[in-house]
Amino acid sequence: MADQKGYSADQIQVLEGLDPVRKRPGMYIGSTGEEGLHHMVWEIVDNGIDEALAGHATHVMVEMLADGGIRVFDDGRGIPTDIHPKTGKSTVETVLTVLHAGGKFGGGGYKVSGGLHGVGSSVVNALSTKLIVNIYRDGKTHHQEYTRGVPDGDLAVSGKSPADRPHGTEITFYPDAAIFTETQTFSYQTILDRLRHSAYLTKGVRTTLINHATGQRYSFYFEGGIQSYVKHLNIGKEPVDEDVFYVDKQVKDSQVEIAMQYTDSFTETIKQFANNVVNPEGGSHLTGFRAALTRIINEYARKNGLLKEKEESLSGEDTREGLTAVILVKLPDPQFEGQTKGKLGNPEVRGYVEQVMTEYFGYYLEEHPAIARKIIGKSLLAARARKAARAARENIIRKGVLDGASMPGKLADCSSKDPSASEIYLVEGDSAGGSAKTGRDSKTQAILPLRGKVLNVERARLDKMLANNEILSLIKALGVGIEDSFSLDSLRYHRIIIMTDADVDGSHIATLLMTFFFRYMRPVVDGGHVYLAKPPLFELVKAGRKNPVFIYDESELDVVLDATIAARKKEGLKVDESAERFRQAGFIEQKRYKGLGEMDAEQLFETTMNPEKRVLVQVKVEDAEKADAIFNKLMGTEVELRKNFIQANAKFVKDLDI
After folding, report:
1. How far apart are CA 515 and CA 97, in angstroms?
2. What distance lies between CA 435 and its chain's CA centroid?
3. Picking from 168-172, 271-275, 544-548, which range would have the lowest pLDDT averaged per residue?
4. For this structure, is 505 an active site residue?
5. Which residue among 43, 428, 458, 539 is the active-site one?
6. Which of 347, 326, 332 is nearest to 254 (CA)?
7. What local confidence, expressed as pLDDT, does residue 650 receive?
8. How far is CA 514 from the centre of its chain?
9. Which of 212, 511, 530, 549 has the smallest C-beta neighbourhood within 10 Å, fewest atoms?
10. In the chain, pLDDT over 70 holds for what percent of residues?
């Protein structure tokens, strides 16, 4: 049974009221769209995770109810139920109705916590039509209900604690449709991914998701914690060593936990967290880790004769090539920069991480000389490749190849010089490229034909990329440069549209291009500048061949034909039931397009390039970790992984969204 002693009303501190939440919900949950809707779940789940971090909970469970609500239970101590001295109300009601009321402001409720502002539970209450709370403490169930943040009555004892829930907190809420006007529907996969993440970061804690509408149920439990996380991130990569380096060390009042493993990849994957909150922009823990890693590897390499005295030291970039690492620090007073806690600001944490890395990773290299030699060998290869890439880049710059004054010969540029009004089509093949050049709006639309399969950059370093004509033409046309010289402000077109055939080869070329953008021009993707054109699959030809109907996927064809046949019957027109379905619908021909080259210039513009009629899919990477894994499966060396992925997802291709 959880220890409930020492956790009472005087540990819950009150700072201010709740009124602003319903007026400006975006200030508290980021948005009132799908992201903000799920943020409501995270606020309650994170309270349960905080109980686990404090050593009082072992299980956090989320239930997606059939009526659209969410129920979250943690088997922690349960929110205190006694009267709060400042509000005169029960502490449960205080936590759920007053902003900045919680156990995370130095009252002794939590040593470490992911929650910083103490607004979570009260904000969820304010933005829900209904919220129901059950507190299981001291063998009793304490129950209270709220409507849009206002209690329907006082906290009441409703009976004994259930046998399966002797202690803990259970909150059920229903998001308010007046606030969340876009959607009130929760995503099973989104919540599942978050709970997996939480389980990785809180070793020994079980997280569970139940969808009562579908019967789906899934639990996560990782005894290895972030060691398991590193292995998960490295699926499909070849590790330098099967074992994951791991250390968990207390330094003063903080905890430093690090897991890392080198692979054959050319890219680094480092995830950093403070009190289980992801810090995508890094911070003092990442700075300390990188500084220590570079210094330790260089010192070991020189001490053991792997790096000569006159040789240039390995750079941080060299020592991190192929590295996968997870850095998790827990501290009593995290100082985050920015509203989204994107960067950790505590300066002392850098020293803590450096101290732990110096002692334990340095010892690891001494104890594992064979692995140390492999790591340093890989770093030396990276250094040589970096120098070769730098030489190639300087040679290209010296020759003016990337100079904006001389665009690639095959680029048909647009006349507009306003990037926000300009777009470039990356077109598969010279035939389609020719049609696109003829049919385009030359004022705003540029065309760059690409010949053959683009280089797979997943398995290529920069020097090899710069030797590839197609990649070089692309870099040059976009105007943003590459790596050290990259500048998003120099982007010449605010819409980059990948236009390939609607077949397997076309999808492969599109994936190769998206891999390039994801790995080497990620800000272009994050800025919402990359799109996939969606050419039609079918053309339904009318008598006289005027005003044909273009169909963009298989399911749409059936819908259009069914609706047209039904309309003809309703009008009393004769329908020959024995004829092909397109003839029953009054069309004289049904054409299927196998490639862009089958369309003439006018058709290509009208179906795929006309801003008023075309269908574009914006490429978004909302979950970089998942995208990284997908690109590794699709473009990496592991054939079996790629084969399994394609077999499992082939039936969803028409709805694929990356």
Report:
1. 47
2. 37
3. 544-548
4. yes
5. 428
6. 332
7. 45
8. 15
9. 212
10. 86
Q: Please, which residues have CB within 8 angstroms of residue 136's CB and are 6 or more apart in sequence?
A: 78, 142, 161, 162, 165, 166, 167, 168, 169, 170
Given the structure tokens 């149920």, which residue do they identify?
Answer: 217
Q: What is the DSSP letter of 456?
A: -
Query: Is 503 an active-site residue?
Result: yes
Please tell me which residue in 152, 311, 505, 562 is annotated as part of the active site: 505
Among candidate residues 231, 391, 356, 362, the one with its CA nearest the CA of residue 295: 362
Look over the chain and give the mean of its residue pLDDT values, rounded to a whole number: 86
> What is the three-class DSSP state of 63?
strand
Give the C-alpha distances (Å, rounded to integers) separating 43 from 211, 344, 427, 517. Answer: 19, 19, 45, 33
**Across residues 449-458, what is the average pLDDT?**
80
Q: Is the dihedral of CA 404, 406, 408, 410 positive or negative?
A: positive
Q: Which residue in the list 318, 470, 501, 539 is annotated as catalytic? A: 501
| Predicted local distance difference test score (pLDDT) of residue 323 | 97
More confident residue, 630 or 278: 278
Q: What are phi and psi of 193, to 5 degrees?
A: -60, -40
Q: Give the confidence band of 147 by pLDDT, cuts at 50, 70, 90.
A: very high
Distance between CA atoms of residues 638 and 551, nearest Å: 36
Higher pLDDT, 455 or 101: 455
Say which of 145, 430, 503, 623 is annotated catalytic. Answer: 503
pLDDT per position as a tens digit, 343-375 = 999 999 999 999 999 999 999 999 999 999 999
Distances (CA, A) of 299 to 256, 316, 323, 362: 23, 13, 18, 9
Q: Is the dihedral of CA 349, 335, 58, 214 positive or negative?
A: negative
DSSP class per residue in 486-546: --GGG-S-SEEEEE--SSHHHHHHHHHHHHHHHHH-HHHHHTT-EEEE---SEEEEPGGG-
Please, what are the domains in the chain?
Answer: 9-220 (3.30.565.10), 226-390 (3.30.230.10), 419-535+617-655 (3.40.50.670)
Rounded average pLDDT over 651-657 = 40
Pair type for strands 168-175 and 150-151: unpaired
Q: What is the DSSP letter of 177?
A: T
Residue 215 corresponds to which amino acid?
Answer: G
DSSP annotation of 452 = S
In this predicted structure, what is the pLDDT of residue 333?
86
pTM of the model: 0.73
What pLDDT digit, counting tens, does each position of 85-101 carry?
Answer: 888 899 999 999 887 65
